[in-house]
Amino acid sequence: MEPLPLALLDTVPRMPFEQAVVVLDAALARISERGLTLDELLQPWQPFLRGARLRAEWARAVDFADPRSESVGESLSRVRISELGFAVPELQSVVRVEGREYRLDFEWEGGVVGEFDGKQKYLRSQELFGRSAEEAVYREKLREDAIRSTGRRVVRWSWDDLHHPNILRDRLTRFGVPRA
After folding, report:
1. β-pairing, 112-116 with 100-103?
2. What is residue 51's DSSP assignment?
3. How confident is the model at residue 122 (pLDDT cuts 50, 70, 90)?
């Protein structure tokens, strides 16, 4: 079995960009949890990354990757947001409202908050979080109400929207997400 650094160097540059970002976001999150940097981990393996095209694809994916993405959906959302020409959002910023903290998937200047939601958050909420789907929806509504009470606008999207970029583009535009 290949060590993780070698597997990353061997496969990521050959993947479509969106898949490379998803893999690197997850890998970077785990690496940073261990107090390491990607450079420290990869240093002995760099000679195995041969070819200008592969090095360029690697560099492009690494430059875009961010360990703060907390799911595949968030990683793919960042790729789509960039492809559509919107400004780079701040990831996982925190809003404090009435003594509670709410972490935001995406936030842009101008008070726009973006939230990616997969169905599993609601359909499997009992299994994943120990609460009914109804309770999960209600809690999410209260969370969004609290975020909106700060003057922010909340735009939501799902997997379907990521697979139909024109719909996502139109929605982000309507909510005033700034362009790059």
Report:
1. unpaired
2. S
3. low
